[in-house]
Design goal:
By secondary structure, the chain is of the alpha/beta class. The protein has a domain of 203 residues: Isopropylmalate Dehydrogenase (3-Layer(aba) Sandwich). It is 40% helix and 22% strand. The strands form 2 sheets. The chain has a 10-stranded mixed β-sheet, sandwiched between helices. Strands 6-7 form a two-stranded antiparallel sheet. Helix 8 packs parallel to helix 9 and helix 10 runs antiparallel to helix 11. The longest helix is centred in the last third of the chain and has 20 residues. The chain binds glycylglycylglycine. Glycylglycylglycine (GGG) binds next to strand 12. Glycylglycylglycine binds next to strand 12. It holds the Pfam family Iso_dh. It catalyses: (R)-malate + NAD(+) = pyruvate + CO2 + NADH. Keywords: Manganese, Metal-binding, NAD, Oxidoreductase.
């Protein structure tokens, strides 16, 4: 069996606390199923690294990481030391762009035992996935300032939508929809306000839909879609959106199902030319960092997505993924629980409980 090389980068804040729990669960499940995972730890993408080196990553990060099968990532951001836009563009966004991780899969599921802030919802009612475009759109860093600091100051920030970029995320999203029982794709744009880029996205959506006659599809303006997430989330199955809209929807979705503390994500290079990256949706949460109270479920669920992706449908990996998900569900249903779910358990206790259930 192949040995998979995993680059481990906890980053900052609660990333440092949730990562050991994901590794604990991976250790248990890989032993049980005979899956060979080899880890190398990197102190990059952290405020400490930035203070020592004046940048978030070494110059040769691409060469050092490109031979890995996956990157397990905690969280980036420590604004007391590095401004957020510098830490994000200096690490995570570099990985997504340079490793062409153009798909960001973010499942949203109401889990047993998790109190739902929306009325009359039970597990199974909310179960969809946000497919976020991950390399272009609103996140392109093109633009600039002129007449800085004067009354004539002008700031411009561009968005970029390429045919390749739009088509490949739509194709992937249609394929995900096709693989699910409901076979339903919803696209989020804002074509009345952003009247150049978003009608283009809609146009490509319509073209792509013709190749997937078995998938029911619809399009929503982003503003009303956010209302529908709250009022009637049951209607969604697969949601596809641009980089910024997908980011917002994939925080809103988990909030509607109880907590962002359990929301995982997979930044995928589907062709496997480069390592894919697996991380919780949540950030470094400086307000609760250092207290061992963060919910490790999002990190552990992200690690489960990594195992599934590495396995490409092969039996031991699929069984390992199922074990991890069952242990997560069992723990959420019966405890222990962290404070975001009304409990008193520590990060470590939840990680230990999930590992013990495998
Ligand atoms: N684990 C995810 C993380 O650290 N996120 C920080 C963040 O601000 N991300 C913005 C984004 O995903 O676009």
């Amino acid at each position: 069996m192949k040995t998979h090389k995993i680059a481990v980068m906890a980053g900052d804040g609660i990333g440092v606390e949730v990562m050991p729990e994901a590794l604990r669960v991976l250790e248990t499940v890989s032993k049980k199923h005979g899956i060979a995972l080899e880890y190398e730890t990197f102190d990059w993408s952290s405020a400490d690294y930035y203070q020592k080196h004046g940048q978030m990553l070494p110059d040769d990060w691409f060469e050092q990481l490109r031979g890995f099968d996956a990157i397990l990532f905690g969280a980036v951001g420590w604004p007391a030391v590095v401004p957020d836009h510098i830490s994000l563009w200096g690490s995570l966004l570099k990985f997504r762009r340079e490793f062409d991780q153009y798909i960001n899969m973010r499942p949203v599921r109401l889990m047993p035992g998790v109190p739902c802030p929306l009325a009359n919802k039970k597990p199974g009612d909310i179960d969809f996935v946000v497919v976020r475009e991950n390399t272009e759109g609103e996140y392109t860093n093109l633009g600039g300032r002129i007449f800085e600091g004067t009354e004539r100051e002008v700031v411009i920030q561009e968005s970029v939508f390429t045919r390749t970029g739009v088509d490949r995320v739509l194709k992937y999203a249609f394929e995900v929809a096709q693989s699910r029982p409901a076979k339903h794709l919803s696209s989020a744009t804002k074509s009345n306000g952003l009247a150049i880029s978003m009608p283009y996205w809609d146009e490509r959506l319509e073209q792509m839909a013709a190749q997937y006659p078995d998938v029911r599809w619809d399009k929503h303006h982003i503003d009303i879609m956010t209302a529908r997430f709250v009022l009637n989330p049951e209607q969604f199955d697969v949601v596809v959106a641009s980089n910024l809209f997908g980011d917002i929807l994939s925080d809103l979705g988990p909030a509607c199902t109880g907590t962002v503390g359990i929301a995982p994500s997979a930044n995928l290079n589907p062709e496997r030319r480069f390592p894919s990256l697996f991380e919780p949706v949540h950030g470094s949460a400086p307000d609760i960092a250092g207290k061992n109270i963060a919910n490790p479920v999002a990190m552990i669920w992200s690690a489960a997505m990594m195992v599934e992706f590495l396995g490409q449908g092969q039996a031991p990996y699929q069984a390992a993924y199922t074990d991890m998900m069952q242990a997560i569900e069992h723990c959420l249903a019966q405890g222990p629980r962290t404070a975001d779910l009304g409990g008193k358990a520590t990060t470590t206790e939840v990680g230990q409980a999930i590992a013990a259930m495998i």
